[in-house]
Amino acid sequence: xxxxxxxxxxxxxxxxxxxxxxxxxxxxxxxxxxxxxxxxxxxxxxxxxxxxxxxxxxxxxxxxxxxxxxxxxxxxxxxxxxxxxxxxxxxxxxxxxxxxxxxxxxxxxxxxxxxxxxxxxxxxxxxxxxxxxxxxxxxxxxxxxxxxxxxxxxxxxxxxxxxxxxxxxxxxxxxxxxxxxxxxxxxxxxxxxxxxxxxxxxxxxxxxxxxxxxxxxxxxxxxxxxxxxxxxxxxxxxxxxxxxxxxxxxxxxxxxxxxxxxxxxxxxxxxxxxxxxxxxxxxxxxxxxxxxxxxxxxxxxxxxxxxxxxxxxxxxxxxxxxxxxxxxxxxxxxxxxxxxxxxxxxxxxxxxxxxxxxxxxxxxxxxxxxxxxxxxxxxxxxxxxxxxxxxxxxxxxxxxxxxxxxxxxxxxxxxxxxxxxxxxxxxxxxxxxxxxxxxxxxxxxxxxxxxxxxxxxxxxxxxxxxxxxxxxxxxxxxxxxxxxxxxxxxxxxxxxxxxxxxxxxxxxxxxxxxxxxxxxxxxxxxxxxxxxxxxxxxxxxxxxxxxxxxxxxxxxxxxxxxxxxx
Length: 566
Description:
The protein is α+β, with helices and mostly antiparallel strands. The chain is 24% helix and 18% strand.
């Protein structure tokens, strides 16, 4: 799919219906809108929209952003602030997660990271709920799990009075020092970009390319007029600081912010932030999201913020002055379809490696701007191919059945003729040293026989090749079993994904429902492990059997499932 295509399409009726659903949902977010999907499609992400309809109305769904790594061999799916679902409705959750699994299989996604906008204090049972539905609870997130919300329901005077004394002083000081704040236009974007680059250079983090901010501004002003605002704080006509803020429903979000190196004693950052707060209140928003603080409990934040500058600690000192309420989401939940890829993903994340992280603006704008989040993309393989899965509705119920086409068949390369032999050299004539072992001299003999075939290689290729003279067949050790998955909830025959083994000697199918969980062998009833040494089929160079992707998913309600690419 052309990643520039979606950014040029008209705002369709389907987009309006989806955005109306996101706007009305109690956990809706700017990052789930059709406009955000169009924006990300311009910069390497492939958006997929998944939803569940009941009686012709969308009741649950999510935007999935897919990105490829390692020359397209590895794909990860990401649900920013999604999915949007009633987590208390077991039936609705099961149906939507099954649809997410189907979308992941169709797009050969190795794992899907979900980050729902669910506050932890409102759902303490989240860990048990996520694990019951086959998810893994990681410690890493892409969006900051903890943020600060400024209540906009009181009057502006009361909001200002509730701020820290030093913040109120700096806001008034900026006015005394002749700092002027104005709302910018598209012509001010080059100045905003220069401030972003200055902040990034000063604080040693990457920023978006200039084109990105132009597309952000144009997309939201085109499809949601008035939903984005650019504010600049100036002194004698020179921009000193700027922010780009967004309004969506009752939520205003501060995503991008920057400041220059000049005239910092005039406190332009406080002036421009106060202007953004006033704009958000005029738009009818009830709270202003400062988007990202260190993931620590409030007591630790207050005890350590003066002595720490790493990560988000440096910006917390600025944000805390606005006296917002600190809230934490439940974090992330991963659905894993390729165990090897996921383990490498976790390993590289622990070592600080991986692919380039998300840009700073996507984890919240700051003064200075936030450093990039150390989220990494998984290296490794893609999900196993197989037969298409079918989603059916009970007889007599309305709805559309979803059928996914099978991916191309796997191509198995012919096995090599065994590992190369290690070349050894005879010891030199004067190699007999104290304590050294040397080859014992042998009497002269006739020509030596040809060496035997190479030994069997553990984890070798499937299908042994004939050995050398005097040797047996070269066989690879059988592969490890695929990982099983927890059973489906009662009344739902869930998605079945065959698990590949860990070695190359032949796959072993681990039939399970939904995503696989690492560290567990395939359940009984999977395809048998090929024998050591390759076996008769291996000696003929036969390809391993491809695990089946099958099973029927029966939906337990009158839900019309619809899945489409934007």
